[in-house]
UniProtKB/TrEMBL annotation:
Pfam families (UniProt xref): Casc1_C, Casc1_N
Positions with biased composition (Acidic residues): 312-321
Transmembrane segments: none
Protein name: Dynein axonemal intermediate chain 7
Region described as Disordered: 1-31, 296-321
Organism encoding this protein: Canis lupus familiaris
Residues annotated as domain CASC1 C-terminal: 461-627
Family membership: Belongs to the DNAI7 family.
Ranges of Basic and acidic residues composition bias in the record: 10-31
Domain IC97/Casc1 N-terminal: 24-224
Amino acid sequence: MSGRKKKKVTKAERLKQLQEEEERRQKEEEEARVKYEKEEMERLELERIEKEKWNQLESKDLERRNEELEELSLLERCFPEAEKLKQDTRLLSQWKHYIQCDGSPDPSIAPEINTFISLWKEETNETFEEVIAKSKLVLNLIEKLKLILLETPPYYLEDKNIIQYQGSVLEMQELLHLKFNIATEILLRQASTLADLDSGNMEKVIQDENVTLYVWANLKKNPRYKSVRFSETQTGFEIPRILATSDIALRLLHTHYDHVTPLRPISTSFQGHTTRIPQFVKDEVKSVEAAISKELPEESKQLENESNSVHEEEETKCEEQGDIEVQTSFVQEESDATKCELEMKLLSETVLSAQLLLIENATEKPTFFEDNEVDLCQFTTLGGVYHLDILELPPQYKPMKSWMIVEILKEGLQKYIYPPETTEDVETENAFPPIEVTLEVQENVIFFEDPMVARWDAEGKHWQTDGISNVSYKSEERLITFSLETFGPVTLIQDTHVNMPFQSWELRPLGVNKVLLTVTTVFTEVQIQIKEDLCMLASIKLSDKKHSSTLEGKWMTPISFIFALKETGLNIFPSGHSHFYVIINYKNPLVELKAYRQLALLSSAFAFGWSKWNAVCTSKKVIVKLSEHLTEEPIQNPNWTLLMFSGNRAQRLKINENSETFSEALKEETEFHSTLYHMVKDFASKEAMEKIRSSNCQFIDSVCYMLLSTRLLSYS
């Protein structure tokens, strides 16, 4: 029993154990402290080395910055050079029109276009076919004026020119619609002679590339004939009994263009900003010209005085006179070169200011919209305008012996008011129900979502969505059906930003002065080829299936191309107000502009693409992926490098697209540079650099314009 007893620990032994534990703890703490101090020293040393290396790189970058920026400035002379070529092209087109002598007016010359309009007003009794034939020229003139307003740089447009061009456009639009109304009246006078043998009513369809007319005249007034369907089409109406028994005609004039929506005025702030630029240019150029003209006589006078003092013999005098002429000629050439250099510098600054305006965001969202009014900054009209009218049937032709007699009403074609303004004599409340309308959607227009229907409010001068019900859309048949309370112009609208923001993008070289820009959105993939000063739609994919378009294979100038693409519903071009309707990855406009200009410079030899890290970095920096690309065919699994650019510094990043976390750490054995051009110069091949230096100025300008118009760095 006593052996099993536990030995009692004495006080001395307990103190010894505590002392040993304390010593062990102190030893561990000391070891931990030494280890921490060692690691901290190593860390500080590493930071010191990194900081020293960083400072060396920054110092090296600072030393060569001026040299690199000067070289970039020389490369970016391509932008003013391209602008000068555009000016020459505009002047040449005017000259070509002048020597063509085809009888068509120059729409930019007020007397010519005014004479054309006046002469056409005097022409009477034109049939619908004749008006359609004439409309081709009128629509061409309207399009030319719109393109002049779009393509002419703002610093060359004066207020009086804008007023003149927009006034001519409006006058031709109104006159064209008036001519269609008069031609409709002439056609309806013959309704009885054109009546269908089966129904006894008149039905007429006239189709053209720009206009389609559907006319139905109610000659029999059969109350059971309520369904109007035009032959060989799905277009038609379901009319109430009161219209089926009335002396009326139904007209659907589908213009494949939109002459109803008001022209967008150029904002005052935009004009104010741009008109200061040319005055500055003119003042500087005038001062240089004055200095040159003053310098030349002084130089000549000084040279003449020197020659008069030294000539003694006739032979010597002749030699001195020859020297004077040579030196005077040299001064003249030098002065001309100085003037040309200054003009190019000023033009370069002007072009830069105009490019910056393309990517500036509006500061205020439009807030003047009434209830049900369509916000044209948020929605776009597509597929033209459907002019729906209920017309009073005019007096018909009557045979009189060998003559045809017709009463011509002085007031012309009259609209039938439906529903009538007063309904006191009508017993039932639902005597004037909405009219069901079925329309065919234009084939070359793409709707990514079911289109909405809007009607024109003639008093408020805007589109609105009230008074329309029971809208249904059959995408396969491209038919839209809805009920309309009152007739008038209607159109189909789509969200302008349905394809924004973009999911990804890529810019890839295709050869000499040729690239392919691919923009991928939620609904589509759009491929655009850019060659010299032209653009072309290469392909469209909808739901991973190729979609054919009338624009494919057609080369156009960038502005014409963007305008045409928007009209088909393929809008991938943000406006100044788009940031109010789309969640964007905001970037500083100046940084964004510099990036686009330098990407365009490198685009002939390098492929660029979207990077997920561009959304993570700050608004003062952009990140793109880059890969050298010297073949026309796409490279399988390209070796992408990430570049970060802040407007005045470019660097390669250590991370790649598959990294888990973002870091701005510099890639090993690389340096900073002031430009993207000098950054890629460090690792690019000689062939790539040669391609870049030999790129066409118009090609670089077109690529830059397309990048500025799509704003890929902010809207992806």
